[in-house]
Amino acid sequence: MQWQEEAIVLGVKRHGETSVIAEVMTRERGRHMGLVRGGRSRTMQPVLQPGNLVDVTWRARLDEHLGEFRIEPIRQRAARLMESAVALYGVQTMAALLRLLPERDPHPHLYEALDIILDHLDDPAGAGELFIRFELAVLNDLGFGLDLTECAATGRRDRLTFVSPKSGRAVSEEAGRPYAERMLVLPAFLGPERQETASPEELEAAFRLTGFFLHRHVYDPRGIEMPSAREGFREAAIKAARERP
Amino acid sequence: MAKRITGPEIEKLIQLLAKVPGLGPRSARRAALHLVKKKDQLLGPLGKAMGEAYDKVRICSCCGNIDTADPCAICTDERRDHGVIIVVEDVSDLWALERAGAMNAAYHVLGGTLSPLDGVGPDDLNVKGLVSRVAEGRVREVIIAVNATVEGQTTAHYITDQLSGFEVKITRLAHGVPVGGELDYLDEGTLSAALRARTAF
């Protein structure tokens, strides 16, 4: 068995003294793991940093085997990512989100989104908005997508200001007002009437919204904690949005 | 079933030696044979030294270093500048910096880096100890000397966030061209980091 594809490095795990098990995200084969012999060498360590775009050749005798990777660098983004806290927290959090997906299950749009967001992580304010959309896409691929296009009660497509914590569907201002305390806020940039940029308050509400559903549908049922890097990313993105001219 | 060629004691010695970094089953067998041949000069003293180390070795409650005393020799050394703390991932990094001898400062060993893949979170690292050392008010500078990896730098930013409320200067090691390094063989990330951090000649 053999295939060759472009991939984004998500992380590595030590294996023995000289090798690592690399975890990469590919367009056609989703999240994939493989053994990299000599992965802890001076030449391979910089290549195997999360966020780098690499060319991967996977080989194994049987499809269900872990297999071996031969990796060549294409674009090494890690050094640029290391310059900012937002970028580092972002790459770690996105890798953690992709780890929630089943291995070897293709999610081409998530691969594309990851590639784009990694290129824009040095713009923290814009990265926050992209990241929220990435979390929504992961929720959707896990089967817990939110319907933010129309009001669950009235069917209206305008003035959507809430999200029902029960159904994960948008609710218009008039229908949701009596239950406002129990509702989650729908930031305007996620609704059908999209704005160009999100305000710090809207970003905060968006992180609360996706965080709520990730906890309820993903982290709590699996008994795992939300990655601490997400909190770091949230704080840094909101701070950057506040400092935006 | 394979024939046994040595007694169970020597087999056990080989099995344990094979777990030492740098040794595989074959080299462990060679090492064991060497030790057994030099029983009085090597095996006996080595066993005694290991026993003593096992009894006395402990982790410093102040900095996380490994020593036979608590606090360790570095923490009790009055000639060091305890106003500067160098934060390292592991004791091996502390030893490497001590070999370099560039700073006469105190240290703080984190015990790893934040690693979601390995399940290492903030509570698994010795960050609270560092915060409480800084909170005592005697520290002027914290030098974060973690590896130049995504995980290492994420940990560095996490520490910076934790120390943001204190009046302390936080610095990190420079990233760039290693001594003896040829530009042609460096990755583009290191090269761009080195160019960004260029200094006046």
UniProtKB/TrEMBL annotation, chain A:
Q: Which family does it belong to?
A: Belongs to the RecO family.
This protein is called DNA repair protein RecO
- InterPro entries in UniProt: ARFGAP/RecO, DNA_rep/recomb_RecO_N, NA-bd_OB-fold, RecO, RecO_C
List the top taxonomic levels of the source.
Bacteria, Pseudomonadati, Pseudomonadota, Alphaproteobacteria, Hyphomicrobiales
Keyword annotations for this protein? DNA damage, DNA recombination, DNA repair
- Which parts of the sequence belong to the DNA replication/recombination mediator RecO N-terminal domain? 1-74
Leader sequence residues: none
Q: Which organism is it from?
A: Gellertiella hungarica
The source's domain of life comes to: Bacteria
Q: Name one GO cellular component term.
A: bacterial nucleoid
Q: Which NCBIfam families match?
A: reco
Transferase as UniProt keyword? no
Q: What does this gene product do?
A: Involved in DNA repair and RecF pathway recombination.
**Transmembrane annotation, as ranges:** none
From TrEMBL, chain B:
Keyword tags: DNA damage, DNA recombination, DNA repair, Metal-binding, Zinc, Zinc-finger
What PROSITE patterns does UniProt report for this protein, alphabetically?
Answer: RECR, TOPRIM
What role does this protein play? May play a role in DNA repair. It seems to be involved in an RecBC-independent recombinational process of DNA repair. It may act with RecF and RecO.
Q: Does Zinc-finger appear among the keywords?
A: yes
Q: Name one GO molecular function term.
A: DNA binding
**What family is it from?**
Belongs to the RecR family.
Q: Provide the Toprim domain boundaries.
A: 83-178
Read off the PANTHER family from this record. RECOMBINATION PROTEIN RECR
The regions listed as transmembrane in this protein's record are: none
Zn finger (C4-type) ranges are 60-75
Q: Which domain of life is it from?
A: Bacteria
Query: How is this protein named in the record?
Result: Recombination protein RecR
Q: Name one GO biological process term.
A: DNA recombination
Matches recorded under CDD domains = TOPRIM_recR
Recorded hits in SMART domains, A to Z, give: TOPRIM (SM00493)
